[in-house]
Amino acid sequence: MTEITQDTPAAATAAPQGRGAGTWRLSRSGVGTVARLELRQRVRSTRWLIVLVVWALVLGALAALIHHALFSDPLNGLSAGDRSRQAGATMFGLVILLVLSLGALIAPALSATSINGDRAAGVLATLQTTLLSPAEIVLGKLLAAWLTALALLAVALPFIGWGFFTGGTPWTRLVVSVVLLAVVLLVLCAIGLGWSAVAARTASSAVLTYLSVAFLGLGLPMLFGLMIPVVSTTEQRPVSYMEEVTPGAVAADGSPVMHCVTRIEPSTVSHTERIWWILAANPFVVIADAAPTPAGERDDLLSLTRDGLRELRLGEDRTSGCQEQNGFDDPARRAARDRLSAVWPYGLTADLAVGVGFTVVAVRRLRAPSRRLPRGVRVA
Amino acid sequence: MTGITVAGVRRTFGDVVAVDSMDLDVPAGRVTALIGPNGSGKTTLLLVLATLLVPDSGTVRVAGYDPVTQPTEVRRRTGWMPDAFGTWDTLTCREVLATVADAYRLPRAASRARIGELLELVHLADLADRPTQVLSRGQKQRLGLARALVHSPEVLLLDEPASGLDPRSRIELRGIVRDLARAGAAVLISSHVLAELDELADRAVIVARGRTVAVQDVAEGEGHEPSARPWRVRALDGARLIAALDTLGRTHADPGPDGVDVDVRSDEDAAELLATLVRDGVPVVSVHPASGVLEHAYLAITEDRR
Lengths: 380, 306
What we know:
The structure holds two protein chains of two kinds.
Chain A: H1 9-14, H2 28-45, H3 48-71, H4 80-111, H5 114-121, H6 124-128, H7 134-165, H8 171-198, H9 202-227, E1 232-244, E2 258-270, H10 283-290, H11 301-314, H12 331-339, H13 344-365
Helix pairs in contact in A: 2-7, 3-4, 3-7, 4-7, 4-8, 4-9, 5-8, 7-8, 7-13, 8-9, 8-10, 8-13, 10-11, 10-13, 11-12
Chain B: E1 4-13, E2 16-26, E3 31-35, H1 42-49, E4 57-62, H2 71-77, E5 78-81, H3 93-103, H4 108-121, H5 137-149, E6 155-159, H6 167-182, E7 186-190, H7 194-200, E8 203-208, E9 211-217, E10 229-235, H8 238-248, E11 260-264, H9 267-279, E12 284-289, H10 293-302
Parallel strand pairs in B: 3-7, 3-8, 5-6, 6-7
Antiparallel strand pairs in B: 1-2, 1-4, 8-9, 10-11, 10-12
Helix pairs in contact in B: 3-4
């Protein structure tokens, strides 16, 4: 018989022990058992049909408004074909943003009370004492939440398709956008699941989940904005502007004679090339950057987001000269942007790491027998 | 040895000592009762046995395995019915049991038959396809018992199984548990209904303040039994009974409406007392123990602990 000796309390929770041996054992049937259980309860306890109908109505109404707003404008001097191409691509981008935003409101709720809710209802321990491993319980719950989120995405597909068929969107962009939407929803479900394992009360885990999602979606852009003054410096640098050659001198046509003057002057430079990565993990940025651009003009929402981020990554334009157009449309800048490596692999990796991290936390929290109980948690 | 062995187990939550030092044996084929006041550590001990809590110190073996280092082996062989548990409200009784069977990785075909059997056993066959949220408390309790039995465990941990059960269900529970023990299972049952445990349990472990304070053998009436316990004697003529008892020099309580409690040392002593009273012409109507074996032992042991 082995004696159970008491480790130092601090190390006890972190150090892997013999008891953790089966934590990560995974089988398809185990995950399936939990996922089936979750889905069955979800289908029977929620008015899912009503939820899906309301979801479709809201998406449909907003997509119709977007369509109206984009296509009711006068042509703005564009040819009808260009007009349709630009409005179509913009509509596609807006519908993707819409599905992502509304999905980010719903997906976390699918898992944010999953584990502590089961604990409160007294049904978690009865699963833990079966042969299911903690990893199977967590992944089963994650799978069920994700499948539910995918059902919402499936209902959204006709509206995404509407944006696609209005024109201007390459089909590769459609595929990449939908696949990444599905991946983002999975990450959001994992965040909710992680918090539901950490927080004892369901209200806490719901709040923490929404804060986390809001941080990714809104917090990162805000943080970026707040960081700009921090990375802004006053530097001596060449500044160019047009100046009259001789004050009062006029050309034959009566206009003042101007020439380009470059002077070294102190000026404020925002070094966004040091902080652009803050934006990379934002889910919309990931989708916009990964989605292939149309062949011609890149003047739609997704393309502008992609080029905007890459512009920030290049940093402020240091070349100088009066002939230059503004930085964004300058062909040289555009070429420089296109030479940059893609941003989305960083962002997607970061998001996936967050999802995996929360999943691992949830699994570790479900290990039994446990040495430590979170405050206020009943085991049974 | 199969069954359960617990030696010197201690478990604290912060500065609250839930289980201080418990020792007990639950042999296979016997029903062992775990009794003690509220907060005496019964449920915590059962959580340790059910592989949910790591004890701070001490040795535990369930079905021959250590629940801390070999939880899977223990779970495979142990059925646990917690004191406070929920059910998946929207699932039917049959689905609940099927989910549990899947969770124990039982083959589908075998588990379907097993589930039908269990539903018959706990008299829920007619409610098998109703969602569990329509079940009464007692019916949920019976479903909980069926759930603990799905994988035919050799060790059974029942935490307050009789609470909420109607009298008929209690009697049936008793029958089910006795049958399981007869078939070789080691049963540990915690309960407050002491009179009932007299008929159900073979042995009782009495705990208080996180410690094992006594082990009582119910069936043979031996063990650490106190020297005397009260038997209630009722006669047609109360005054004559008192007079006879005083003549015999028996210690007795003041007579109540239901008879007189007399201290009796053993069954033989009781038989002798009855014979003497009858010979002396006292019109005795009934003689029986005033309280159950367990109740008496329990009260005697926990008296000084209030």
